[in-house]
Write a structure and sequence with these properties.
Layout: E1 9-18, E2 21-31, E3 36-41, H1 47-55, E4 62-67, E5 70-71, H2 77-84, E6 87-90, H3 102-113, H4 118-131, H5 147-159, E7 165-169, H6 177-193, E8 197-201, H7 205-211, E9 214-219, E10 222-228, H8 229-233, H9 238-245, H10 257-261
The protein binds adenosine-5'-triphosphate and magnesium ion.
């Protein structure tokens, strides 16, 4: 009998604290190939922390994080860098280098992680910039771009290594609603056409349900609910229901209401 296929990503009972503060308290999560998993949760709940664990930037205290067959938390530096090149990351604030123009920002992973020639790199960069509709801005500096344009460039940069997995941290934060929808649709079309699995962190509900094929809710250090988007929408979990409705009535603010009231 052949071994079962590994998940694209798996977190198993992950615990992580910063100093005294417990952020992840037994997080378990599975992501299958071609899923677009939306992770939602309150500000400060640990969403970006989960993405950083998958990238191997942070170390956990106990539990395991797998990307395919690789246990990220156990790889040595060299192997981690190799594995990480198969994961694209789109950061919340785009994280483009201000000293490099658009072309050179997108080329960066190829220059650092491959031995490809200048011609090969140029070809890939042009192709990815065309995919996100930014080829004309190739020579511009990041400071000359709008927030939505920066996101597109950041997306092109995440694509150049032909990753199997892309992590998006708040892809539509800070964008106007129309551009946010454009970015959402770009994420859907690119992940579908390139057959990429993705994890998207967001607290914009419209965006979450537009993009996500699956949903997971992080609350008090645990994934309290996960499932298909449709089932998630009808969740009877009071925390999920409150989060989706944005209501102030429910368990989420309990205990902090008094604190807010006395401010
Ligand atoms: N390097 C660090 N050192 C100390 N504390 C940290 C560090 N990184 C994150 N934290 C803390 O861990 C908690 C979770 O942070 P994280 O950035 O994962 O939240 P988040 O869910 O992404 O929030 P947001 O929606 O505001 O981006 C926060 O309380 C934060 O202050
Ligand atoms: Mg965050």
């Amino acid at each position: 009998m052949s071994a079962p296929r590994p998940h694209m990503v798996e977190l198993r009972d992950v615990h992580l604290s910063f100093d005294e503060k417990k952020v992840l308290d037994g997080v378990s999560l599975e992501v299958e190939p071609l899923d677009r998993l939306v992770v939602m949760g309150q500000s400060g709940s640990g969403k970006s922390t989960i993405l950083r664990l998958i990238l191997g930037i942070l170390r956990l205290q106990s539990g395991s994080v797998f990307f395919k067959q690789f246990e990220i938390s156990r790889l040595n530096r060299r192997k981690l860098q190799q594995v990480r090149s198969q994961i694209g990351m789109v950061y919340q604030y785009s994280a483009l280098l201000s000293s490099r123009n658009v072309r050179d920002n997108v080329a960066l992973p190829l220059e650092e992680l491959t031995t490809k020639s200048r011609e090969e790199i140029d070809k890939i960069v042009d192709e990815k910039l065309a995919l996100v509709g930014m080829l004309d801005a190739k020579d511009q500096a990041p400071s000359e771009l709008s927030g939505g344009m920066k996101k597109r460039v950041s997306l092109a940069r995440a694509l150049v290594m032909e990753p199997e997995l892309i992590l998006f941290d708040e892809p539509s934060a800070g964008l106007d609603p129309v551009i946010a929808t454009v970015i959402d649709e770009l994420i859907i079309s690119l992940t579908e056409s390139s057959k990429v699995t993705s994890i998207i962190v967001t607290h914009e509900m419209d965006s979450a349900f537009r993009i996500g094929t699956k949903m997971a809710m992080l609350y008090q250090g645990k994934i309290i609910e996960q499932g298909e988007a449709e089932a998630f929408k009808n969740s009877t979990n009071p925390v999920v229901a409150q989060f989706l409705s944005g209501s102030t009535e429910g368990p989420i603010l309990e205990g902090s209401k008094d604190a807010i009231a006395t401010k």
